[in-house]
Predict the structure of Amidophosphoribosyltransferase.
Amino acid sequence: MCGIVGMVGNGPVNQDIYDALLLLQHRGQDATGIATAEADAMMHIAKGQGMVREAFRTRDMRALRGETGLGHVRYATKGEASREEEAQPFYVNAPYGIVLIHNGNLTNTRELAEEMARRDRRHVNSTSDTELLVNVLAGELQETTSSELLEPEAIFEAVGRTHARIRGAYAVISVIAGHGLLAFRDPHGIRPLILGRRPGATSEEHDEWAVASESLVLENGGYEIVRDVEPGEAVFIRHDGALFMRQCAAAEGASPAACTPCAFEYVYLARPDSVMNGVSVYESRLRMGERLAATIAAHVPVEEIDVVMPIPDSSRPAAMEVARRLGIEYREGFYKNHYVGRTFIMPGQAVRRRSVRQKLNAMSLEFRGKHVLLIDDSIVRGTTSQQIIEMARRAGAASVTFASAAPPIRHPHVYGINMPSREELVAHGRTIPEIAEVLGADHLVYQEIEDLRAAIVEGSELTDLDMCCFDGRYVTGDIDEEHLAWVQASQAS
Amino acid sequence: MCGIVGMVGNGPVNQDIYDALLLLQHRGQDATGIATAEADAMMHIAKGQGMVREAFRTRDMRALRGETGLGHVRYATKGEASREEEAQPFYVNAPYGIVLIHNGNLTNTRELAEEMARRDRRHVNSTSDTELLVNVLAGELQETTSSELLEPEAIFEAVGRTHARIRGAYAVISVIAGHGLLAFRDPHGIRPLILGRRPGATSEEHDEWAVASESLVLENGGYEIVRDVEPGEAVFIRHDGALFMRQCAAAEGASPAACTPCAFEYVYLARPDSVMNGVSVYESRLRMGERLAATIAAHVPVEEIDVVMPIPDSSRPAAMEVARRLGIEYREGFYKNHYVGRTFIMPGQAVRRRSVRQKLNAMSLEFRGKHVLLIDDSIVRGTTSQQIIEMARRAGAASVTFASAAPPIRHPHVYGINMPSREELVAHGRTIPEIAEVLGADHLVYQEIEDLRAAIVEGSELTDLDMCCFDGRYVTGDIDEEHLAWVQASQAS
Amino acid sequence: MCGIVGMVGNGPVNQDIYDALLLLQHRGQDATGIATAEADAMMHIAKGQGMVREAFRTRDMRALRGETGLGHVRYATKGEASREEEAQPFYVNAPYGIVLIHNGNLTNTRELAEEMARRDRRHVNSTSDTELLVNVLAGELQETTSSELLEPEAIFEAVGRTHARIRGAYAVISVIAGHGLLAFRDPHGIRPLILGRRPGATSEEHDEWAVASESLVLENGGYEIVRDVEPGEAVFIRHDGALFMRQCAAAEGASPAACTPCAFEYVYLARPDSVMNGVSVYESRLRMGERLAATIAAHVPVEEIDVVMPIPDSSRPAAMEVARRLGIEYREGFYKNHYVGRTFIMPGQAVRRRSVRQKLNAMSLEFRGKHVLLIDDSIVRGTTSQQIIEMARRAGAASVTFASAAPPIRHPHVYGINMPSREELVAHGRTIPEIAEVLGADHLVYQEIEDLRAAIVEGSELTDLDMCCFDGRYVTGDIDEEHLAWVQASQAS
Amino acid sequence: MCGIVGMVGNGPVNQDIYDALLLLQHRGQDATGIATAEADAMMHIAKGQGMVREAFRTRDMRALRGETGLGHVRYATKGEASREEEAQPFYVNAPYGIVLIHNGNLTNTRELAEEMARRDRRHVNSTSDTELLVNVLAGELQETTSSELLEPEAIFEAVGRTHARIRGAYAVISVIAGHGLLAFRDPHGIRPLILGRRPGATSEEHDEWAVASESLVLENGGYEIVRDVEPGEAVFIRHDGALFMRQCAAAEGASPAACTPCAFEYVYLARPDSVMNGVSVYESRLRMGERLAATIAAHVPVEEIDVVMPIPDSSRPAAMEVARRLGIEYREGFYKNHYVGRTFIMPGQAVRRRSVRQKLNAMSLEFRGKHVLLIDDSIVRGTTSQQIIEMARRAGAASVTFASAAPPIRHPHVYGINMPSREELVAHGRTIPEIAEVLGADHLVYQEIEDLRAAIVEGSELTDLDMCCFDGRYVTGDIDEEHLAWVQASQAS
């Protein structure tokens, strides 16, 4: 889980990128980085641990000079968080000087790493798939071009060859020193990327452009939405504001029709005020609530339920719609604390698990003696749901029905959503009644897979989605048991 | 605006205080500090700028050894933020070694500062009223005691003499090295303070105690609520867990009956899951909504309103109740971004104002073509409300009715809630229709003063409140025009 | 081993104190601190680890506003280095606000610590004798004065009472907020302190004053030397430049005639370009060489020696004089590296001892085939001398005669010179031939005790010295075997 | 002015490189960097401002894993000091991953920068000639090799092509990831580089190798000196300890006979205990003294001189020899303070020039009434000499004769010794009597150019030297007036 943004402006872009990263902070809070390029090709990079607010100091921002730039926020997997070598953006100086960030996950990193040393003779100094990616792109740019001046043609050919070499899900933003900003999206459009335009303030100024993971970043910055970058498509924006776009992955079957975005963006990850692939995230969540209501009604004696409550924040729209459809009162019984901290390891003290209560607290008035229906966006490990249900009971709930706006998660996610290993998923190898028992719920209802799909695609041009962790179907076609076992083994180490 | 917590435990309290500060973070995000004391009287202090998460490093935490301690989060007024000398806790080494924090505001600081140099011959190295307070207390302790061992009697007498010397609103927590933790509250109970108890884990362990600004901190830490500290009352908890309580401000008229807590805690400041002075903050907000609904119905054609929406997060309960009472649908049309950042000042660039949109965004679907009723907790400067109303209109609202769960703010607040100067308050010197025009609202409704009072005190033993910024009545009796003019002048500098 | 400086100026003193500390850096390189006071009594303190160059940043210096101030450099004993609580200056806020530094060592800290808690009810938060000292002084000031304004009389009485309570060696500089700078010296004048005056630049400006451990600091700053502060004497300089001096330890037998300064200042610690107690350090070292030459001639076949060499830097004058007196050629065969670093502890690696060679290297040309006479200022543990002798042999020396400008060190030093415990002193319990064998020297010559005394006092008004580590005589009269055993035990822990 | 070191060991090299840098600290104190490579080709880099002691923290050192590595200390020219982009080492990731440092100065940077963008399409993100150098080498390696495995042949060919493209003075150390350590020296051998070998500790261990700017680093580390790297020669040491050497600049006329090392190394820069190009620095300085004595005798009435004194530290050997040859007593009248600090710029205060006295102080005893002959290694701007002469007079000198062990500096130095621009050189455009007048010396004597050359080359295989700043002859043949004007203009900006 990452958030990315890139900009080509008329003036300095550092503060704009910083502000954009704050708006993407929900997509990753473990590390962040910004790179900018000046017209004379000088590049500046600043990276830091933690949230945007913590990571950049005034002197970092002052050094980030330039009218073209990009930024990244990162959700780190276990153990990665403090390794500076893994932090994006990544820079290579040949050819041209390229800095690159991506959101997603490459699935053929083993092959790429081997190829990189053998064929490309490029040094990779981390285990990051982003470093592989920038080197694949750099290697291909070296092959497709031979002049100092880089033509859009050559860039697009290099992107095409990059698509041919890499597998997985990726939305990429890159700055090529002295030239401009390049962005492209994987052939299945699994990870999001959207383009916006802001007219120059004066007649001397060119159009300003931004690409980002989510549309609200563009809107907030005063950009009009141009459209989503299509699956397999590349966008190149020259320093002078000239825009070039090209489908570069036709050979990999990419087309707008073949777009299968990650369902998790709608379920949980994206902000509700974003529109992705033509689908309003907020509205899709309302529809998830609508369909979930029907499933709940089919399985649970709804007339006994006194009140519907969301687990804040992301399940709020679905819960509100469930309440409306079922004609049950909607209340907010949980208060969410947005301030997170750390657990320090003291010599001679046992490490303590910080309880869910540090993040969520129940208002007794809303629970006392009531039969409550709690709506969450999804259930992963189940430990949080378990604690929430217990909290509701301690607050006096007469009974707790729990409903998930997403179907059971039974398979690994390999396209850039951080998930625990299969064995840790509560739904892995369990029936719904078995899960209910683990969670301690009186009733447990899950969204149907087809309902989730329909709730998202309804009214859009989308026909399918990546729903791999629900249905075990991997759209890139290269994921087999051997791969999943390797993923599992890598996580364990 | 500050949050405070103190603990006497059987083991190290550093992580517990840290966790408590995270739960109080909403009360202040500009600076924070922790102090701990070991059984042998060694004290350790760590302070830092910014949020709790940013301010403390592992090595700070490791140095904070000891079984007794206290913590503070601070909301700084303009210009103060970066002055380390102002950061709490404050320490004086004579007599005994005292570390102290407080939430509130002293109103006779001019007299105290003068007295301090002349009579007490104590050095005050900041403009902080907390430094004055710790020195008044230290000076009185020096007078009331003469032995190495400090008896509760002597401590309570010193607190009594401190009450006699200081004016204003204050909830104080202090650690006296080698002795224990002392907490006390101003004679009017303006600022909150509550006591909790946690039984020792084994028969060898004594009871553990905590005092804090808000009850949820105690609950979250597994403490049972004992009760609010009463106006003028002092609590002394020896290092060995023995508890002593005493009313120390009878001379100043303090009594449970004379408790006039700050109404702003209920309106805006406190977490909804806290109970203060016997009043559930959450329930008081529901009642504010109930009463506000009646006022709205009396002034606005409610049948034309399509939807009620809160300005998240604190107005949510009131808004939900308004919707229910008026029989209008409740929807969440605004998304609140909880990640805040900074605006960097770049050489040669103008300073930019960060728009409200960085924090709040409107979901068009909920606004398009609708007559909306927006509920906020209060209106201070009016600039935010103005931008929100404009945002609603741009999102397609057919009309915007705006309602404030608090009455018009027309007077300075001198008891520890940070407010701009009188001239900057939008309601200062304006009628409600004039304010509506400034805000750009089609209709504007304010809670009645008596309704706010009733909503808060209803069902409790409270009979009155401090509502100075609404009604201009100052319960401490020492605030006159000269004082307010001096406050204004100090702010301006 | 510490260096101290204090100044009362017409303008800001921060940079002047900083520059003075650089000149005192040879007296301590482990920690440093500066405190300044403004005319309105605001005080500012900055402390840091390591050398002056490393410890203070621009923002520290900017915060050190004020026309009166003091500074300290510290040589830490084992384990102390990284404990921030031990860092000077120490501050107490009652009475008046006092900041204090000292050079030396108190010998009755056990009694003082006990008294402090019991009688003075003052909190001491470290094991530093400086913190005890500032509290004794503060306690006495509280007793001797009762008004806001502090008269020199009262200050001097408090200093007198302080002398009566503390034992040991101390040169103290203190700033009393709102009043001025106070400095005083122990009744035996063991540690140095000297006063300088700089006329104001204009007729509006008052005289500026400085006190420091060494005269070169004053000279370098453009101050004319007034004179050494006498044993037991106190100097008080008001913020307005008025100077007051008083003998405050007559009761303890202090008088100019009773001055017994530490011989080690002349042997090793002080800079050669300083004059202390009327004795030029440089000239005393020349005389040490003169007398050492005679002793060498009496014990060693000097006609066989080809060349005399110093162990740089402090033995250079003595060596040059030895060469001249013996008529042997003087050469510099060792090169000293002034850049010191750290040995990092790596996981899984053994700690390595950094050899003397990292600091000292031999020029083969000067050693090859020659009979060399090496002169060092003193021999403590003997390990360095051993390695130097071995280095000389590896460089080709035909024979190595080693001479120490100081007598054998056989007793603990309790007056502020850091020494290992008795057992680690190579001369403890060994005859000179036994020491020679341990060191691997062909011949070993030590200065006679009386010769050292004579070399230092010659031509001055001094009649005696503190030479405790050579002769086991402790001038303060309170050191017995029990005390020495306690010191030893404290060091071991 | 820089110092460099590289090592291939059997175990971790981080601490060894750190220790080596401390020994090279005299060659540069403004910035430093270390890079290491692990057997699996992972590389680690740490850089910092200031001295070695300040720049590296424990966590930096722990991250510097690997058995091959290199280190650098830097003397920054004006304005450069704080620019992180300029800090060595520089890294490029294609091909192979190369990290590189150098000591010296390239003279054709303008051409190289242009070529780099146009022909090599490599991005250069600083104005550092080191970044150009690593990119030239990388570009040539890419051309000369095509396989994953890099043969010594290919490396040497790439070095040869690098020699052909770059001009100036350079001693280079580089690590090629997964392969080993490469070092080479410019075709004229202007800057020094020497190779050492340390046998493995066990039969399983291979030989360990080190290359460094100065021999004392090797000796100190326990390496036996193999020999100087020859002009134009390259050394490649594989990770497994295998050594390969090759002359790579025969085309540029490089040969041992054509070696013209920089005379300034002997005059001032190198440590006396180093041997460079077969010449002991210490002995060459003695010979400089010997020859200077003759010149002094020829120009000055030596019988009137009472005493000879060095300006510490580097002129000590020359001064001692002057004294011996002239039969005049040698004394040390100046004390040098080795602790340097900063001058802080305070708001509203004028910047103060720190006087020479902060670094050097005169012992009056040695000057009073005496006719002194002061010996310095060289005279650059003359401002320091001027202040020293004044200091001697104030200390009581009857007359001051000043002699420089190096000839007048009248031309720019373009091979890596930092010098002010021509106009700032006191000898530029002045006769010796005119200079004497500027300095305020009674007599002024300079070493003759031929004497300096003879003093250095005597007894070695060297026949010539680079003495460009004395004689205006530039051995690389590419320096003309246009170039010198460009250098001057660059410095000014």
